[in-house]
Amino acid sequence: MYVSRAVESLRADPIDGEPVDLVLETADDADPERVATAAEAAGATVERHLQFDDLLVSTTQDEIDALCDLAGLTAIQTGNVNAITTADDVEEDLDSDD
Fold this sequence. Notes:
Helices cover 23% and strands 28% of the residues. It is an alpha+beta fold.
């Protein structure tokens, strides 16, 4: 299973109780409802069902390990992947003349 670098970093040095949103990508042969139930049993809250039977869940950093052990997943990534929406949100310098 693929675990994004950001999630691996949180997993390696979690802050107890610190909230995090994650995208759980389900395997083609997995039942998304069973994965959702297992995620909830592991301490996560299913916020919504996404495209391709993936799940957006909220949890805490110290519960990431339990989610990584779930059957039926192909990947776990942060749910904040698309947070950069404007030029003001990026850290790099941008040339506004382009």
